[in-house]
Amino acid sequence: MTDIGKYLKIKSNNIAPSRGKLLISEPFLNDYFFKRSVVLLAEHNEEGSFGVIMNKPINTKFNEVIKDFPDFDAQLYLGGPVKNDSLFFVHTLGAKISNSNEIMDGLYWGGNIDEIKEMIMLGLLDKNDIRFYIGYSGWESKQLEGELEKNSWLVSAMNTKKLLTTDTDNLWKASLDTLGSDYEIWNNFPSNPEMN
Q: Which residues face 137 on adjacent strands?
């Protein structure tokens, strides 16, 4: 936690991290990947945790970055600092994509990429049904718990529809709103305190 965070006595909430929960970065975290980020946890267990950053769109067209893929007018996102040479995805397609894993009600992680490509070629996949990420966010065993103790993150929850339809510029604040007025000071703190 930063010195400013100590001064404001920011405290962690008591929601435990788990699959489908959101990690909301503290407002003073000045990290390229995680500044004002919202991470969707795809897994959290004794071996570690991983997920993707939900609010970091990349300003490059999907097919300019992803080769050997049918033309698809979809937004591409930065998922995190780990394996940023790999493509990951979450979707709302469920059983339509084999090997998908449900991470929260109506939202799935991964699945058969060839089936995704075929659905795109046949015009059966809407860009609002899927999100693609370059890289992912990961923590070793007990690492995330240590960061939670230092108040680097809050844990929250949000339903699938709100998570996918909230504008990425507003997702950090909207995620904090789910926690109530105790964290209003986080929401109102300027992104760059020195500019205040």
A: 51
Report the distance separating Cα 5 and Cα 59, nearest Å. 31
Domains located in the chain, CATH noted:
3-186 (3.40.1740.10)
Query: Residue 37, Cβ neighbours under 10 Å: how many?
Result: 23
What does the DSSP 8-state code read for residue 13?
-
Identify residue 88 by its one-letter amino acid code: F
d(CA 94, CA 115): 12
**Strands 130-140 and 101-104, how do they pair?**
unpaired
Query: In 3-state terms, what secondary structure has residue 22?
Result: strand
* Residue pointed to by tokens 């004794």: 46
- Cβ count within 10 A of residue 4: 13
What local confidence, expressed as pLDDT, does residue 8 receive?
Answer: 46
Q: Which pLDDT score, from 0 to 100, does residue 193 have?
A: 52
Q: What is the residue whose two structure tokens read 């986080």?
A: 186
Which amino acid, residue 97?
A: I
pLDDT of residue 12: 58
Q: Which two tokens stand for residue 159?
A: 């339903």
Phi/psi at 135 (5° precision): 80, 175
Q: In whole angstroms, what is the distance from residue 118 CA to residue 97 CA?
A: 11
